[in-house]
Amino acid sequence: MRTAAVIGTGLIGTSAALALTARGIDVHLRDADPDAARTAASLGAGTVDGPEGVVDLAIIAVPPPMIASVLAACQREGLARCYTDVASVKAGPRQDIAALGCDTVHYIGSHPMAGAERSGPLAARADLFEGRTWVLTPTPDTDTDTLNAALELVALCGAVPVVMDAEAHDRAVALVSHTPQVLASLVAARLEHAEENAVRLAGPGIRDTTRIAGSNARMWVEILSANAGVVADILEELAADLGTAVTGLRSMQAADEAKRAEGASTVEDVLRRGNAGRARIPGKHGAPPTRYEVVAVVIGDQPGELARLFAEAGRAGVNIEDVLIEHSTGLQAGLVQLMVAPSAVAGLTSALQQRGWRVRSDR
User: Fold this and answer.
1) pLDDT tens readout for residues 16-48
2) Other C-beta atoms lying within 10 Å of the C-beta of residue 43
3) Yes or no: domain 165-288 corresponds to CATH 1.10.3660.10
4) 147 contact partners, CB below 8 Å, separation of at least 6
5) CATH 3.30.70.260 fits 293-361, yes or no
6) Of 63, 111, 72, which Cα lies nearest the Cα of 90?
7) Which residues are paired to 192 by β-bridges?
8) CATH 1.10.3660.10 spans which residues of the chain?
9) pLDDT < 70 regions, the chain
C-alpha cells in the first residue's frame, strides 16, 4: 500500500490516517465538514488535496446509515482499487450496499474494536488501534486482493485481524459494546439528581461502571439505530434478570426467615452468574483469564511519585500486570492498586516497605 483515502475525519478515521502517515503512506482526507478535514491534516494525518490517480485503499469512516451512499459515490468516481468501512455495525450497511448495487468484489466491511469517550479529530491518536482487535466481514464475493488490502491496513495500524460473518459481528458487539454503553448511561443517569453528599462518596466502582457514559450521545444514537433490534433483545433479557434481582432483594426484607433466605439465594445466584461471565473475559494478550492479587500503596499527589513507585517495583523484579488509582476525596493522596502475580506479592510488599512506602496487600 502506497496511497489511501480516508472519508470522514472523526476519531476513527483520523486515527487510522495518523497511523498510516506515520508508516509512510500518502493519505488523502475528505469530510463533509471541511474544517474537520483541515484539522486532521494539521495534526499530520494527511492532506486535504485530492489524489492524482486511483488510491490503493479508501477507508470510509462515516456513520453506519451513510456507508452505502458514500461507498456508491466513491465507486462511481473511481477513487480507489479497494474499499472498506470502519462502522461499528455491519449487517445493516451491507444490506444498504446491496440495495444500491455497489461493487462488493472490491469492498470489505471492517470494524476496529477501539474508541474513546471523546470524538472528533482532536481526540485521534496514531496508536489508538495498537493491540486491539479489528474485525473484517468480507462479502461472499470479496476478492483476495481486497481482503489482503484490509489485512495490510490492520497490520499498519498495529491491530489484530479477526474474520467474522456480518450478522455474528453485530450480535457480538451488541453484547460486549452497545448494551454496556446503554447500561453505563442508565447507571450514570441515577447520579444526575442525586444529593451532593451521595455523589461525593463515588469510588472506583462507580467510576469504572460509568466511564463510557461520558461518550457522545448523538454518535451513540447513530450506532444504536443501526443495531437497535439486537440490543433491544439483550436488554429484554437483562430486564428479566433485573426483575429477578429486585424480587430477591424484596424477599430479603420479608418478616419470614425462609422468605429472606430464598431472597438471599436468588441474589447470590445473580452475583455468581456475574462471576462466571466475568471470568470468561480474555486476559493479558488474549490469553486465558489470569488471577492477580493486589498490592495497595498510599501515594502522594505530586509529580514523580508514580514513576518512583513503578521504578522500585521494577528493581524488585516484579512485573505490574495492571494498575488502578483511587484518589482520596479532600486529601492530596491516593491509593495505587498494583495488580501482580500471586507469587510476587510478598516480595513486592517487603521491598516497598523497606523503601518507606505505606503498603497493604490482599493477604
Assistant:
1) 999 999 999 999 999 999 999 999 999 999 999
2) 18
3) yes
4) 108, 136, 138
5) yes
6) 111
7) none
8) 165-288
9) 116-117, 283-289, 328-331, 361-363
